[in-house]
Amino acid sequence: MVSGTRSVQSQAEIDFSKEDFDKLGIKYPVCQTFCPAEVDGDTCKCKRKRSRHRDRAPHDAKKWESAIRTDLLPAHYGRLANDAWFAHLDIETELKKVEKLLFELWKLPEPKLIISIIGGAKFFKLTDRLESNFIKGIVSVAEKANSWIVTNGYQVGIVQLVGQALEKVRLRNNDSKMIAIGICKWGSVKNVHKLTTIKNNAKNKRRINRSDDSDEDENSHDIIRRGECHLEMNHTHYLMLDDGRYRYFNSKDFRTKLCSYIAKKPIQKKQSKAQTPAVTIVVEGGLDTIANIYYDLKNNIPVVIINGSGRAADFLSRWFSYAKNVETDPKYAEEVYGIDELGTNLLSQEPIETKTQKKSKNRVDVHADLHLDLSKKKLRELFHKYENEMREDLRNLLYRDDDSNKKKAEKQEPDTKLLDTLDQVMFCLQPGLRSQITVYNLDSDNDLSETIFESICKAYNKSPKDKTNKKGIDERSALLDLAMGWNCIYVAKEFVFQNSLDNIQDRNKYFIHALTHNLPTFVYEFLKLGLNPADVFFSKTFASRQNRRYKTFIDTLYTNDLITNGKPETHLKYFIDVSEQDDRTCVVTVKKLNSVLRDIIGDYMYDLYFNTEDEEQDHRIKWGLTQRHEQKHRNNSKDVESRMTSTTAAQAEKASKYIMRDLFLWAILMNRIDMAKVFLCFVKYRICPALIATKILKEYYAKTIYGTTKDEYEANIKYFEKYAIDCLDECNQEDPDRACQLVVQQNELYGYVTCLQVASDARDEKFIARPSSAQAMHCIWFDKINKKKTDNLSYVALMFGIFSLGFLASPLVRYRENEK
Fold first, then answer.
1. Residues 628 and 492 grouped into a single domain
2. Among residues 233, 244, 416, 778, which is most buried (max CB within 10 A)?
3. Mapping DSSP to helix (H, G, I), strand (E, B) and coil, where does residue 231 land?
4. How far is CA 555 from the centre of its chain?
């Protein structure tokens, strides 16, 4: 069944011609020299019939590897039925050409993370834990971090499960931009020629049909033969590799090399020298999975093993724990010992022409071979306590995968595959590479995204580089960007912040990102480490007469997108007046912001936001909120100069107080409650802002009809009211008279409102009923009369004072004494 997967970009957006593709020079091999297989003399090692070859005379099978490279045909490309791009290419294609295909022709966006998923196929079994803990987690990570997901592209095992999860994401969000690349073998895809000709033009069809030299017949279309699988149709792109063979899954280390190349290759869109993080997730799997892990670790790609998923993953998790105490000299603990693959590659180089060169070359080969033999011997020494048990454990895994190996064991034949895999296992588990491996337990309560991010950070810290240079700072910034995308604060604190902001380049940008993307834990970390939001949103001349000091603040945080589409939902949009000239639901001026606050809180609150210092002072003088002699003082030019010099520190302190207030009110208005709680921790006086929060949320509550949003508003209203009550009670225990004053004093920072005003308007009955509030209202009622002398005789004296029009009040009524 063909899925309705949408490609990342439409056909119109990706515009390139056949000539553009041909310029890449990508080709693919075709076997034309018949080399009979051991089982069937009429079938070549490429698994095609003799009649399909140009040279049909039997040749030595040992020469097949070199013969297959002699015929390379121009590759082809196109779209599949699910609108996904594919390209048929040689497995030995230069990575530079593949890079151009991905970025220049297919126009893939630059990844922030490359996630390879390898593992279970034949014996894979889905469990509830695997589906809930892993699949949901990995898709969530990829969706949040703008990642590439790279798999083998076959509709089997864990890849099939990932494909189903991708389909659900696209059904839920039709505009999803997730990239899923399947790197499969052309000859192992069932009905590959039929799949690749469905949606392509006639010219390309003829080109593909001319290369249709497979051994498929009409009777085999519905039969899944050994070495082939259906294509998983929920990926967005497919790289179909070809080594000339059919029904042969092995793609060597192409995936590893491509991921490593893309991660290290500087892309033009990148503004820094940071590499793109890459990580491999291992779920279940067999011996091929172990080989892929070996390739990844050789290329410094960290690996996360899902313990509890079965087979190879459980085997490696088990031995990762068993072998953690491998004895080694501390000076060799960081050294990585190789195995003999490198020696084989060196020894297989082309012969040298001259005798001198040949002699020199032989010396290099012998030296490399001896060095690798010593490394292999060192690995054996490291694991000598565990080697026999590890071999038997691995043998059980091998026999389950391949019955032919079991027959070899019964005949007591040497099992080279087992020994090679054992070497790969020891290579992966050696002390110098253990930091590149992270084990995630399916039974764990830990978040998978944090585990993945932790593995990337450990690999970064392990890499030899100067953390003070430009590249090191760029990579830390890239890791912070990734951590914020996943909201992994604990790992970011350990590996990125490290109790200092000196590791963060352009910290203001990341602070704003944390605000707009609702990341309160990151905001708290920035504030705790000393970042001053006033430096982010206000210019250095906070008291300047010309600057619009709130322009950056309003343009950044009160945008139409945040108000209308922000998460969580806010009802601020219902309090913003929309005019015919501007139908945007946003706040663009301080005048409009002041108007919104008056509509929500009440007209007893004076304006909070002003463009300049002079505008603020004029407003206060106009409404009698400050003394007029201050205006005369400001008009004296000499006084202005001295004031600007002498009060720089005071202005900086004022700016800090203002911005904390502004950010708290913004968080409440945007219904970002956790963010508001963070800013409330950094506000000096907290009772009044907490009561203002209850007033705003009650106005939002009244606009909400029903649903979870209404319930959340109600819960948050209770939280802030209780917060204000707790603060007031603490003050009352310390000093009842001062607590009483706090309730009725005007708060200059919040438009000269009083706590009692806001609580009364918001109908915070529990706050009003507190002893301090009751005492404050008692004081207001009695004014200057001594409220402590309120017995019956005092009431009689008060009545005489009233009826005598005040003539008898002075000798009879007792007044309060002046208090210092």
1. no
2. 244
3. strand
4. 26
